[in-house]
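In the previous lecture we treated proteins in isolation. Real proteins rarely work alone, and many bind small molecules. This record shows how such a complex is specified: first the sequence, then the SMILES for pyridoxal-5'-phosphate.
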Amino acid sequence: MDKLIDLRSDTVTRPTPGMRRAMAEAEVGDDVYGEDPAINALEERVAALMGHEAGLFVPSGTMGNQIGMRLVAEPGQEVLCDADAHVVTYEMGAAAAVFGLSTRTVVSDGGRLDADRLITQVRPKTDWHLTATAAIAVENTHNRGGGLVQPLGELQKLWNWSRDAGVAVHLDGARLFNAHVASGVELATYGRMADTASVCLSKGLGAPVGSVLVSSAERIGIARLWRKRLGGGMRQAGVLAAAGLYALDHHVERLAEDHEHARLLAKRLGVDESTVETNMVVLDDVPAPMLAEGAKAHGVLVSQVSARRVRLVTHLDVDRAGIERAADVLAELLDR
Ligand SMILES: Cc1ncc(COP(=O)(O)O)c(C=O)c1O
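The predicted 3D structure, ligand included, written as tokens:
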């Protein structure tokens, strides 16, 4: 059989030969001493791209999000977010289990940010009866929302309100590069509308490991302590940062290709193309287990989100021919 076409996630990519060379040639040092040149370069570069003072290389998006939220909320305070947010769905209750943070969720319209809906739920820090809302977490693009790009107007509205209200904003930007390429909005424009933000190198950008948490220099100093406490103080991890630097040089603009592939899949499978904003296609009202099994038998892997929902994610390890073959297999199984 031909090579497997893995559309389960953009996390499945393997480093390209060029990326592997960059990793092999990385200049490294002990990052716990702050002496790894590749890591220092990556942190500075991502912080600048995001319009923040400082950055911290962390092993995963989960660590970036959880430390990011802890920087802006104290134990016993709450973080408000939408009910389908990654931070409360897939991060194993870390906010509560590790940091003593309370989370409260608001049901959204398919993950789309509705600033007013969140704002009306905020509980003040000055009422001794209520759990204080310290921060709001926003996800862009939204994973369970099928890769949707958050509307700039809503982000701006939330940010403007938050400054007066004294409520912080954390951005889960695991796929912020996809949002940037799809919308043309600068990363720093998104970044400046958050007190803390985590961006991933190991999703669409194709690096094997790593995320960068950005914020003020003071907060990142505290984040460094938390990373060490959690066992995330890595040593010559510049080999990983080098993959991230390579990805920033070579894999950002090409995300447009993944987005085009997602639209192509949608078209072939009769999915409303307007629902495809970045690199994900959601197939609703389909027999997910049957479809996933049937596709697998033909060398195509897809994600079952629920019994009736399947998700396809395009990425740099699946080229146009692979997308066309996947579309043929899925169209046949769905009789479309
Ligand atoms: C939106 C979002 N945030 C955070 C993460 C966490 O990233 P990691 O798997 O590196 O912990 C993911 C992972 O897929 C994600 O989709």
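Summary for your notes: Residues 11, 60-62, 65, 86, 139, 143, 172, 174, 200, 202, 211 surround pyridoxal-5'-phosphate (CB under 6 Å). The mean pLDDT is 97.
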